[in-house]
Specification:
Blueprint (H helix, E strand, L loop, with lengths): L2 H30 L2 H27 L7
Length: about 70
Amino acid sequence: MSLKAFHIVFVAASVILMAFLSGWSFLAYQETHSTEYLVWSLCAASSVVGLVIYGRFFLRKLRNISFL
């Protein structure tokens, strides 16, 4: 597996993890109404957006390099 392929898999796994954390934190906020969970949810959601933007930038920058 090339470094490019590993990087794409790692970013995709990070997006999935942050999306799960955001959803879980928001559900915990709805149950407890603690602002700490709301802050965690918003931070994780902004991380998802940032990681998606970074992933698109990375793919555009290295589109001429093969995955092998």
